[in-house]
Amino acid sequence: MEKLDIGKYIESAIDSITQHAGPVLDGIALVIEGIVDGLQNALLSAPSWLIMILMALIAYYVQAGGVKPALTKKGFKKAFGLAIFTVIGLFLLLWMDYWEETMQTLALVLASAFLALLTGIPLGIWAARNSKADQVIRPVLDFMQTMPAFVYLIPAILFFSVGNVPGVVATVVFSLPPAVRLTSLGIRGVPEEVVEAAQSFGSTKRQLLFKVQIPLAMPTILAGVNQVIMLALSMVVIASMVGAAGLGERVYSGILQAKVGLGFEAGLGIVILAIILDRVTQALGGLGKK
Amino acid sequence: MSKIEVKDLYLIFGSKHKQALELVKKGVSKDKVLEKTKCTVAVKNANFSIEQGEIFVVMGLSGSGKSSLIRCFNRLNEPTSGSILVNGEDVLKMNDEQLRRLRRTELSMVFQHFGLLPHRTVLANTAFGLEIQGISEAESYEKAREMIKTVGLDGYEDMMTGELSGGMQQRVGLARALTTNPEVLLMDEAFSALDPLIRTNMQDELIELQRKLKKTIVFITHDLDEALKLGDRIAILKDGEIVQIGTPEEILVNPADDYVRAFVENVDRSMIVTASSLMFKNTGKLILEKDGPSLALRRMREMGVNRLPVVDRENVFLGFVRDNDVVELKKKDDRDLNKILIKDVMPKVAPDTPAADLLPLFIDKQLPLPVVDDDGKLLGVAVHSSVIAEVTGRDREEIIEIKNSGGL
Q1: Residues in chain A, pLDDT under 50
Q2: A199–B116 C-beta distance less than 8 A
Q3: Engineered SS bond to B380: which of A166, B279, B314, B373, CB 3.0-4.6 Å?
Q4: Which of A113, A118, A104, A251 is nearest to A163 (CA)?
């Protein structure tokens, strides 16, 4: 018996996509490139001290839960601490001369997370309200999460050649599942009686969604946002293998040249960025509750 | 014309409900239908009408289909067959637009666990019904404020609903339902999640509110006492079928079958609750041979009472002493409590005497009834106010108040 050659079918499918959907792919590439370039330019053209202050302010605002919140001493300490950490961490990176790479990585993460949320949250809403859609989406998400992340890089290169765009595409695919899952989970978790109450007063489906389901699901959805950003950051490093710029690129060349110092420095940068992004987005959930 | 008319209503859950409906109509039992089609028959051939301005109570145990039935009225549950006429219009034939209008203006619902929006204030919750009709915030908030006042929550407008107690949350639920000025209120076990005391309160207030507003109320409950108290008429539901509809009186006097009778038998609590569960066990008592007036006074002060039971060394009940008499005795420097003992005024009762039978025995309302065992040994005392509270179903504080004001 001839061996089952799934790979062959996948290849021919990818081939026909590249052949026939060329203009579409080019359009997607253009949009992604525009977003990433725009973000990178904005982050890099601004003076570094401004970025530091801005990020510290954002960190403080989110952690403190608003501009003029009633803060306890402990809450203030926490918010102030995060702001200080943000400044020190970013200053360290500037000092090590990794500022450009850090901003490039940040731009890639934000662009990927933005695109992942833009597709993931509506998909999650759809999955929550339509059990047939859920039945289809669920196994696809399982597939996406268990497939090794590197595998996404291959079709990404075939579709978009090398550079930031295939990196972002692979990152979006990799970081999408939690946005869908947690949105769906949050909406399904809204108490049945509250939904019934809204319906009993004559809500339309849209009113039910925006006035009841999304507000009540917000903490869970924001937990999804946190997950998406963290996954995107971890994938951006891998994406440097297809030429995505930033800290990942340095780590990758550290591996290729067997330079421990280089790899460690860039790795430290990723850790600092990860801590800032994680703390800030975790605190977002608290904002959603208020 | 009746306000609401329900005709031949069936509600069956499950994907093969059409097949199940045919079986049910042929007279196949619920269990058989479930076995054959995996469909649950929630409501079976319901026929009744509800008049303008009455409180119509649907009563049944959990699983009897009462909540499923009330959800048919505004089609939160989609009935399998039959018709529900509200003001002569068949709800089941309405399209989405008509149904929304019905829900927005005609029928409002109050839920067992309130169904409030936790991310909104009391005011914003109350205004919800008007808000989704597209009415301006200024106008809807004004009406909401008015309704919040009506249910006695003024001052709480800007609190989040999660900060309120259960009773207050349900007031918000009620205010929200009333704000759209509906003609019909659907109340699904609206008071079942509340503490007994608050529940009684809310029942009284609902009756008071109804006197003013004159809505048509469909009230679902599993509690017969609540049904009897609130209902102008009561429908009793068993396994999705209505077994009896009638006024509280009719249902109490002429229960239609054993099922209803079993319910009704439990009503008169005063015949079931006995002296032993009513009495106070830690009454403090004096032992005739040993205790004198000083100790008697001290113990009365400790207990906060003006009389104490007196027993002998064997704990056999002898009588009561009053504080005034003890003071007199003490002034005379006499130690013998026997001289002031009040004997044979209050009859001794056995612990299994029903509460209703205790009431006529209070010859002196200031003194409690001694509850004694077969050997005459003191078990405890039953106080007048507790007995009245049990028999009338009012709470004890209330009775004491009425007594103090000279009402009893």
Answers
A1: 290
A2: no
A3: B279
A4: A104
